[in-house]
What does this fold into?
Amino acid sequence: MVQLITANDRQSQREGTSKILLTGVTGYIGSRLLPRLVGTGRSIRCLVRKPHALSDEVAQSSEVVQGDVLDRPSLVRALTGVSTAYYLVHLMGSSDFVQQDREAARLFAEAAREVGVKRIIYLGGLGEEGDPRLSQHLRSRHEVGHVLRASGVEVIEFRASVVIGRGSLSFDLIESLTNRLPVMICPRWLATPTQPIAVGDVLAYLVTALDLPPRESQVIEIGSRDVVTYGQLIQEYARQRGLRRWLITVPILTPYLSSLWLGLVTPKSAEVGRHLIEGLRNPTIVRNHHALNVFPIRPMGTREAIRAALRGLPQVV
It folds into this structure.
């Protein structure tokens, strides 16, 4: 049975042991992070809008509080008694996602500061800071990090590019394109450099961040050891699946037209695909290698990550 947090529970929460709050538990990263957090032996609380829609496994493994990141009172309830909060929220499906993401981050950060949360762990996106050509999607990801840090609560912001794993939206786009199109008329963004990372490595970073000693907020850029293009990702996927694919690059497909094209061949909505594709024109590579000094994690290469995803094997560092 799902447990709902009420006002009557708040005093006991303040007096009890501190908890970890997980947002985005129904999303790709959050749903995979939860069992790893449970495995640490810590007490986990999940913030969700529709608790009764959760699986029994989630309800049995964690405490569940009903709320919304755009509803400040529910955030205060959820964050009371919490020491570390994972912010894995992205409202990209909305037409005004930039404003909504900004507002959600502000409300979350203010509520976290009010109730004494010690640390926020946030997963954002790579992309050169301050680049005027940065896509709306990536600028929004960076802005959310800035808003969270402005609260004064310590923030560990991870920035990643394409996450390789079954069910990842970016990987699903590559998979759908390669499976369905023997010949691809491709825009120039397929030559954009990126530094993808296996989902197992992302999860390892997120869990390990729990045990970092307190310090000032920091931005941690993470990626595999390989810098590749999106075209090379498609070709490597095809090679491992035993598919022959031809990529013909032309300069005439704009990112917007490319997203409409993707909408015809992928199971995802063209609106979400458009925001993602607009970001593909921007290089997303690790420029600061601080992660190698802070964490013992050594991410697997792109070839290994794709192989693990296709085999459905757990990607363990």
User: Anything to note?
Assistant: The first strand starts at residue 19 and ends at 23. Residues 18 and 82 are 5 Å apart (CA to CA). The domain at 7-163+195-225+283-299 is CATH 3.40.50.720 (Rossmann fold).
